Amino acid sequence: MRTTRSATTRRFLHTFLITLVLNPTAPAASKLNVLLITADDLGPYLSCYGETRFRTPHLDHLAASSVQFRVAYVTQASCSPSRSSIFTGMYVHSTGQWGLTNTGLTLHRYLREFTIPNLLKRAGYRTGIIGKLHVAPEESFQFDFRPQLDTRRVRDVAAAVDQFLRETAGQPFFLMVNYSDPHAFRRPEDPAQWFFPAQVDGLPDTPLLPSSQTLLAFQQIDTPEQRQRTAGYFNAILRLDAGIGMLMRVLENHRHNDDTLIIFVGDHGPPFARGKTTVYEAGVRIPFLVRWPGVSGRFQSDALVSTVDILPTILDAVGLKIPAHVQGRSLRPVLQSRDAPWREYLCAEFHFHGSRPFFPRRAIRDHRYKLIHNLLAGRVNPSTGIDGDRAYQVSQSPQYAGTEIQRAFATFANPPEFELYDLEADPIEFHNLAGRPEYRTVEERLKRALWRWRRETRDPFLDPGFLERVLELTRTGRLAELAEP
């Protein structure tokens, strides 16, 4: 018996109405949603990355359903610059946001219409951000949803995500969730002092206690103060992990597990000397997880990836053209296959954190060796401590006299023009190989690759005159003159 067109139409409408009744919040469009999660000051201290002193079961669960990149860099180990690259797909020397927003620096004007939220909003997405934005000018970012809350209170974060998803039913969304953990706290009674509380709102359930087991390998400093700080840092990671579990349950409750691209990264490494605000591995290396439904596999990858790759990956996933100026690449090939051809080198840099500690550096690595170029070699690093960490001062005390620990921290404080490290033999970068004849070929190869990257990305600090101008503006407190209105 032939089926008439009207009968077919009636069956379609019947099925469609039943679907609406049973699933009233199902999105009307088939566009992929995007959830971008960042954790403030998080290095790869997760059990899925080999951490054995504590477990991070919720992030491990996400990693098990994602591609887990084991060699991932931020562009600069400082919050605002790092996030400027995430939002734009550009290296920091190209974004204009060379330091924290309190420097007065901003994104270059031409980039402001090409940020992730602005591009996706024009494509019909509802956009939201929970937690810090920290890139200037903030008013240039087109977010439809921006609640004000303390993102260390991870239950409140989950509630805000639930609110956003309820309000967004039937529309594709981009949501960025920025957890403050495991960043250090400022003491309310003295903002110049930093600390890590053992718990916030009862989390983690069972805090780690300070011990020799809670020390950081890249410092090798053992004092009661360092034990306390590192235990607090790890407790903040445990609290973050609990929050990720809550967030993922909310996403599942709204039936968005299978229609949402999920990217999880740290914005840079931990707030400890030789970590944050440096180009050492402890500063620029981060956890990086990507789950792209229907595209990504479930495996660990040694591809050299960067946070400049986030914007082009998102645009590729939602079907938008990647602007020609973008310096990152879509991760699609290395999400589909661990053997896909990819970049040979990975680069990072540093300029400012706050307005005065200007100490520009460039770094490049391959799968084994790493070269650091200190642009102000011969001058003392003006920032040897970060967020209250005193490891440098301790390292120069008589207790560590004549040790490799003292020498490594001395290099950090007063570096030569070039540093070269064998990351297989020396992952904590204690032994500078630059200038040694047996490594000349490696050093020269990395120097050529670094100069090529700087030229191709139009690094303005290649101009000695510009470098001197920035030094003068920093010295006289006029750095904001470089900002674009």
What features would you describe in this structure?
With 485 residues, this protein is α/β, with parallel strands linked by helices. 32% of the residues lie in helices and 15% in strands. α6 (154-167) packs parallel to α7 (224-253). The protein has 2 domains: 29-334, Alkaline Phosphatase, subunit A, CATH 3.40.720.10; 350-482, no CATH class. It contains 14 helices and 13 strands. A 7-stranded mixed sheet has the order 3-4-1-7-8-2-9, sandwiched between helices. A 4-stranded antiparallel sheet has the order 10-11-12-13, with helices on one face. It has a two-stranded antiparallel sheet with strand order 5-6. The N and C termini lie far apart (71 Å). The longest helix has 30 residues, at 224-253. It has helices spanning 5-22, 57-64, 79-88, 92-95, 116-122, 154-167, 224-253, 281-284, 310-318, 332-336, 391-395, 404-413, 440-456, 464-475; strands spanning 33-39, 67-73, 126-130, 173-179, 185-187, 190-195, 260-266, 288-291, 299-306, 346-350, 361-365, 369-374, 418-422.
